[in-house]
Write a structure and sequence with these properties.
By secondary structure, this protein is mainly beta. It is about 5% helix and about 60% strand. The chain contains one helix and twelve strands; from the N terminus they run αββββββββββββ.
Length: about 170
C-alpha cells in the first residue's frame, strides 16, 4: 500500500506544473534590457480539465498588459493558450508528459515537421530566484526562429524561471 502511495506521488501527469486551486496567486519578475516588470497571475477557475488564469503585467515604463491564460493537457502535452471573447486558442506545448532528458517535441500545434519550433527536455536543474531555491526543476529549452528560451518548472509551483535570447541578445 505504501508503494502505491509513493507511485502516485511521483507520477508525471503534467498537471504538477499548472493545476492549482482557484484563488492561487503568484508574481513573476520579468527583467528586460529597459527595466523590470512584474506579472501577477491568479487562478480564476478550473473546468473541463482547463485552468483559467488572469495575467496582469505592470511594465517598467508604467504601462500594463492583461491577458487571460488557459493551461491544459492535450495530446500528451501541457499546453498554455489564450482565451479571448469566450474562445480558447492553443498556444505553446511547454512540456511533454513523461518526457525525459533529450526528448524533443513540436512547440506549436500544427507546426509539426523538422523546421518548426522545438522544445527539448534538458533534464533537471537546481534554480535560485528571488522567491527562493528550487531543487530538481525540469529544464525545457525552446528554439524558434532566432529565439532561444530556457524554462524551469517546479512541481507544485509551476514556472519558476525563464530566460530568453533573441538573435543572441539576452532579454
Amino acid at each position: 500500500l505504501a508503494a502505491l502511495a509513493l507511485l502516485a506521488a511521483v507520477q508525471d501527469t503534467g498537471e504538477q506544473f499548472y493545476k492549482f486551486g482557484v484563488g492561487t496567486t503568484w508574481t513573476l519578475l520579468h527583467k528586460e534590457a529597459d527595466g523590470e516588470s512584474t506579472i501577477e497571475l491568479k487562478v480564476l477557475k478550473a473546468e473541463g480539465g482547463k485552468v483559467h488564469v488572469d495575467s496582469k503585467e505592470k511594465k517598467a515604463d508604467g504601462s500594463s498588459a492583461d491577458e487571460s491564460l488557459v493551461w491544459w493537457i492535450e495530446d500528451g502535452a501541457m499546453v498554455w493558450g489564450m482565451a479571448k471573447d469566450g474562445e480558447v486558442k492553443a498556444g505553446m506545448r511547454w512540456y511533454r508528459v513523461g518526457s525525459t532528458q533529450g526528448d524533443v517535441w513540436d512547440l506549436l500545434p500544427g507546426a509539426d515537421g523538422p523546421k518548426g519550433p522545438k522544445a527539448t527536455h534538458m533534464g533537471t536543474a537546481d534554480v535560485e530566484v528571488p522567491a527562493g531555491k528550487y531543487k530538481e526543476t525540469v529544464h525545457v529549452k525552446v528554439e524558434a526562429r532566432g529565439m532561444l528560451m530556457h524554462v524551469y518548472w517546479a512541481a507544485g509551483v509551476g514556472m519558476v524561471k525563464m530566460t530568453t535570447e533573441v538573435d543572441g541578445t539576452v532579454q
